Amino acid sequence: MRVPASSDSNSGGKNLVVYDEPTSVLGLRRSPTPTTVEEKPLVSAASGGDNQFPSDDHAMRSMDWDSIMRELELDDDSTPTLKPNFPPPAHFAVVDPPLPVFPDQLNPAEYGYDSNNEGGGGFDIIEDLIRVVDCVDSDELQHAQVILSRLNQRLRSPAGRPLLRAAFYFKEALGSLLSGSNRNQNRLTSWTEIVERIRAIKEFSGISPITLFSHFTANQAILDSLHQSSSPFAHIVDFEIGFGGQYASLMREIAEKSSASGGFLRVTAVVPEESAVETRLVKENLVQFAADLKIRFQIDFVLMRTFKMLSFKAIRFVEGERTVVLISPVIFRRLNGISGFVNDLRRVSPNVVVFVDSEGWNGISGAGSFQREFVSGFEFYTMVLESLDAAAPNGDLVKKIIEGFVLRPKIAAAVEAAAVNKRQGGGEMTWREAFCAAGMRMVPLSQFVDFQAECLVEKAQVRGFHVAKRQGELVLCWHGRPLVATSAWRF
Amino acid sequence: MRTMGVKGLTLYHLKSHLQKFRQGRQLCKESTENSKDVSCAAESQDTGSSSTSSLRLAAQEHNESYQVTEALCAQVEVQRRLHEQLEVQRRLLLRIEAQGKYLQSVLEKACKAIEEQAVAFAGLEAAREELSELAIKVSNGSQVPFHTTKMTVPSLSELAVAIEHKKNCSAESSLTSSPVSAALMKKRHRGVFRNGESLVVGHETGWVMPSSSLG
Fold first, then answer.
1. Which segments carry the region annotation SAW (chain A) (predicted)?
2. How many CA atoms lie within 13 A of A57 on its CB side?
3. Cβ contacts (< 8 Å) between B94 and chain A: which residues?
4. What is the structure's pLDDT at A190?
């Protein structure tokens, strides 16, 4: 329940907001020692989704848009005439999202999924999913709801084999698509959710080579490009910075290589509006990490919205720097198209463009078919879940955390993007074609990259992962099917 | 042989030396399969005719030295690859370690933010209740009895200490970023640390206190 709160600190005593019922998710009343998040997150959300804390973040950390924007220098200084049109802070609610409490975790005995459907049941569930997709495609939303509620009965929780778990997450994604509940772009992430996400990423990196492969392969491609020139100034434009984990190892390398003069690194990260809290956390941590390594570091943030309007003009480039652009399918989805982006990229003429595809993106942007993208996404994430099962055969809780906080949001984003983009798309080329048409050519990856990937896979000690080269890309595969594909390009 | 200038050195001596040399080489050549057979063949050929076929010997030596070079090259290559792979492994370990360290510190900072948020909230919550209690009492026209506030004072000082502690620990205190809460905390600190028995907050927000013996 939202409580109007003014972020304006000028109103003095009146600023103490009136709460209705401050029973917080953290179980706080008067004690200064809050329940820590060491408890199992999935079960401790006993207070459920209804207890919103609209204003605690609000008043405490001034997480209103204005101050965050000012802090991150995303306000009017940079783009005087094109200040993003945010609603006034009073309408913002910092909402604690309901932690994913799946019924079967609270009371496993009660909720099993229908075991009658175990055997051949997988396929009619998929058929139903596709029917929903088709209905959404042809705007038969009522019919879609009907089929979806049928599916809800059969898929009550993400349990069972990978296919069924994937089906559950994709069903959930379709559900929120239909109910429009993910339209709430103005929601800032709560600290609890952030902590859970970071933990999930940590766990995931620990058991599966997927994340590290993406980061380290890209980093090595970047380092190889940087070493080709004597200029120590590097500027990386990153479209999917996440929590900044990739830069830890990159900075370590830069520090080692330039031990005499101290290293330089400048990063410009294009971030979505709703990640304001994460963004501040990332900035704090990267700055600290760089300082510890004695690297001269600077990080700027550009809002996705601003980038959509201004493209690369929103980003500051400095003469004499080696420019690296790091991209993933996320930006192409947001922009719904590749050609415009690559043409603008050409004008920037970066020294290297590193493309990391860890979403099984089949690379056909806006090709129109929601169904096709849905199905290929479904296949992809089923495979990811399979690999997760192999990586953590007995780690049920770990898998739930990873699935809940790493994979499920990705699935939801992918489904939403596929649904949105289908309306605008139509017969575009594959990303390779678009890159080549814009005049880019591939840069071969060094042998170091190959060795590193192989080493990494070996270290992971999970049978089924292997590294392959495919048309100049280095690909991490799961039983022959690509999971992550990295390539480097230049103009 | 003249250049070597060793007395009594004959072709025979040379050939036997070369043979021993080649035998030694053959052990090294074990790793390169293809040249092994050839060198065996060369060996057997050589032991046969030691005096007549000097030309053939020269050709064979040339052949063999070529194989030796090839073998050496292959060895060097193998060593280089080994060395590079060791380097890759070392770098990889460093990178994994850096990544882990970073994620750990991000996690810690985020957890701390939750704690700070909770403490700050607790502090504000307590303060709000105090103030509203006082407001009621003041509006009732009664004197504010000091002893009734004593019960809450310990918890206030507890909180104040906790908050002070947090402020000192964290490099960037979230509390200071919010002027309202910070101001409130300051008021509280002054009140509690100077005179633990009375509620100075009321005094500083301008409420009328019956006795102003507060520091």
1. 416-490
2. 27
3. 249, 252, 256
4. 86
Q: How near does any CA of chain B get to the CA of A42, in Å?
A: 17
In degrees and rounded to multiples of 5, residue A191 shows phi and psi of: -65, -35
CB contact under 8 A, A195 and B172: no
Judge whether A403 and A388 are in contact, CB under 8 Å: yes
With contacts defined as CB-CB under 8 Å, which chain B residues touch A212? 96, 99
User: Which letter does DSSP use for residue A89 in this model?
Assistant: G
- Contact check, Cβ <8 Å, B94/A252: yes
Average pLDDT, chain B: 66
- And the tokens for A302? 């550009």
Which residues in B lie closer than 8 A to residue A292 (C-beta atoms)?
none
Rounded to an integer, what distance in angstroms lies between the CA atom of residue A360 and that of residue A373? 10
> How far apart are alpha carbons A112 and A135 in whole angstroms?
29
Euclidean distance between CA atoms A128 and A164, whole angstroms: 13
Helical residues (DSSP H) of A326-369, grouped into ranges? 329-335, 339-348
Interface test with B, best of A62, A94, A281, A451 (most B CBs within 10 A): A451
CA-to-CA separations, B115 to A33, A276, A337, in angstroms, rounded: 8, 19, 43
Crossing angle of helices A191-207 and A276-292, in 10° steps, is 60
Residue A344's closest CA among A438, A270, A441, A431? A438
Length of chain A: 491
* Tokens (6 digits) for A388: 């997760």
What is the tens place of the pLDDT at every residue in A211-227? 999 999 999 999 999 98
Q: How far apart are CA A407 and CA A428, in angstroms?
A: 28
Min Cα–Cα distance to chain A from B128, Å: 7
Backbone angles phi, psi at A54, to 5 degrees: -60, -35
Q: Which residues of B touch A201 (CB under 8 A)?
A: 103
Give B131→chain A minimum CA distance, Å. Answer: 10
Residues of chain B contacting residue A285, judged by C-beta atoms under 8 Å apart: 102, 105-106, 109
Asked if A284's CB is within 8 angstroms of B91's CB, the reply is no
What one-character-per-residue DSSP string does B36-54 give?
Answer: HHHHHHHHHHHHH-SSS-H
pLDDT tens digits, A170-190: 999 999 888 876 555 567 788
As a whole number of angstroms, the longest Cα–Cα distance in chain A is: 68
Per-residue pLDDT, B203: 42
Residue that has been written with the tokens 């501040």 in this structure: A280
Token readout for B118 is 């909770």
Do residue A24 and residue B121 have CB atoms under 8 angstroms apart? Answer: yes
- Single-letter code of the amino acid located at A16: L
What is the DSSP code string of A11-45? GGGGGSPPPS----TT--SS-SSPPPTTS-HHHHG
